[in-house]
């Protein structure tokens, strides 16, 4: 199992790259309300630093957040103290009966615990069995063609007390995206350096659609959460248990 989102990168992701979760939240809540899910337990797979979990608890939902990163779980418990959190792989965890499941920010693509499309289908079946009739599974994924233009690409981002060098490359044969990151975080008067390597398996949206339908979901394809729109090579799904 690959380690991912250690302390410094988890911190940077929270303070510098949390916009996806925060800007998605209103649209996600709207989907839940449209489905008549105004209360109950929402399980958030790949909960990260708890931005979406906090929005859910503020809206009156019970929340169980699951993430493979200890650092993310620590941040989430501070950010959303009314929610419950569990450190686990979403592929291995036993889900409770619930009113909705979410997995936002391409979590299912990450290969921290390497898995195949077949294991994704097993996860979908487990989620289906965990949901009550009429409940929903809301998710988004990264698709093929994630890296456009130069491949590999190198970028640089910085904040008040951090900086990150990123090199990303998409393998056209294996459909795997590799992100190599050199991370700098200010601790006291000095900067601490660390490195992380993330592998992300890219899927065709049609493959995920078929897997969801195969286990019994009624599925609608979406390209954003409300007013928040996905970037290129991202697609989402609202999967309803009949």
UniProtKB/TrEMBL annotation:
Residues 42-134 form the Methyltransferase domain. The keyword Transferase applies. SUPFAM superfamilies: S-adenosyl-L-methionine-dependent methyltransferases. One of its GO terms (biological process) is methylation. Keywords: Methyltransferase, Transferase. It holds the Pfam family Methyltransf_25. It comes from the Bacteria. One of its GO terms (molecular function) is methyltransferase activity. This is SAM-dependent methyltransferase. It comes from Fischerella muscicola CCMEE 5323.
